[in-house]
Amino acid sequence: MTQQQTINIRRLMKMLQGAARSGVDLPSVLAQCGIEPSLLNAPDARVEPEVFVRLMSRIMEQTQDEFLGLGQGRRSKPGTFSMMAQSVIHCADLQSAVERGIRFYDLFDLSVGSRLRRQGKTAWLMVHADPRLDFRDVIVEAVLLLSVRFMGWLIGKRIELSAVHLDYPPQRGDEEYHSLFGCAVTCRSECNELSFSADYLDLPLLQDELSLSAFLPDALARLFDGNAHDVGLPARIRAIIGDWGGHHFPAFDEVCEALHMTPPTLRRRLRDSNSSYREIVDAIRKDKALHYLSTTQLGIAEVAQLTGFSETSSFYRAFRKWTQQTPTAYRREHCGLAPEG
After folding, report:
1. What is the dihedral of CA 43, 44, 48, 49, to 10 degrees?
2. Which of 169, 188, 309, 341 is the most buried (most CB within 10 A)?
């Protein structure tokens, strides 16, 4: 792993300082994340992204704050991001999704807010933060970075940034800033914003409620990793299948036609992606089954039908293969719902 892919210990220290102010048991959290306390005294030390994300998750749990206790008494309770994501997932295009997400967070009394501006061929996402925040730079950079990566996940495409402006002195080297945002970063600017082509805002959302349910459990890690947008050919096929709706799945030849590929070409491309059409369909069926079992009181036979199985016994066999559990056992253990026959 290159130096640019790791996190400087100074970033971790700022997060720990904010956590300590919120009453987090730092020795316990460090031990849970496998971080040696001596590492905190090495100014040039770096940690791998998964360690950093693990630490963020532990601090969120203890502070009950998605802002990690950095907001000086103003919290974003766990689940807020999830509710925002669910509120935007059915928007027609990225612009409407971003604007709805901004309105969602405006409902809360937070020390940070965002605004979207579009003019001609350029769009800007701006973040304003209370200047009295002690860890303002950490919050601003996190909000900008995670916002644009979530936007990329929604449309299944990396959003290439034109420029980033920050209104405070540089907190890291040029190379590290470029690694973070992938473009030039100008500090001591008049505002905090990132700019990108306005064409992205017109793109339809590739994701849906089912893919969101699979994304949310490790959303932080996927967004921080930077590859959340990399949906590839299997996700394009999922989107085509999703357009059909209901419990009917298009034939392989129909998917080939939608992708403007011949069947041999699509089979080869899927092999290169270590996938197959049947695996994609099975994955969709699994996502649908977990969604219906966890959010509805539908009977097992109804869930089987909605996931494309003509016989309930076939659904039972497939579900056991997916989860090593029966549908009723899964519903009882994970959802707290009374199983329906």
Report:
1. 70
2. 309
For residues 317 and 304, give the distance between their C-alpha atoms in angstroms, rounded to a whole number: 11
Helix, strand and coil content of the chain, in percent to the nearest 5, comes to 55, 10, 35
CA angle 26, 28, 33 (to 5 degrees): 95
Structure tokens at 141: 């950079």
The count of C-alpha atoms lying within 13 angstroms of the C-alpha of 68, restricted to the half-sphere facing its C-beta, is 28
Entry field: residues in the chain: 341
8 A C-beta contact, residue 58 and residue 21? no
Residue 242, token pair as written in the block: 């999703």
**Residues β-bridged to residue 165:** 186, 193
Instruction: Classify 243 in phi/psi space as left (phi over 0), alpha (psi -120 to 50) or beta.
Output: alpha
203-262 pLDDT, tens per residue? 888 787 777 887 888 787 778 766 665 556 777 787 778 767 666 788 999 999 988 889
C-alpha dist (Å) from residue 294 to 41, 299, 330: 46, 12, 9
Distance of CA 38 to the CA centre of its chain: 32
CA gap 121, 341 in Å, rounded: 55
- Does residue 48 register a pLDDT over 60? yes
**Residue 317 · residue 327 · CB < 8 Å:** no
Half-sphere exposure of 334 (CA within 13 A, CB side): 14
CA distance 282 to 185: 44
Question: How far is the C-alpha of 51 from the C-alpha of 35, rounded, in Å?
Answer: 8
Rounded Cα gap, residues 94 and 305, in angstroms: 33
> How far is 147 from 135, CA to CA, in rounded Å?
18
- Predicted structure pTM score: 0.65
Between CA 164 and CA 120 the distance in angstroms is 18
What domains are there in the chain, each with its CATH number?
Answer: 3-63 (no CATH), 80-202 (no CATH), 231-335 (1.10.10.60)
Q: How far apart are CA 133 and CA 272, in angstroms?
A: 48
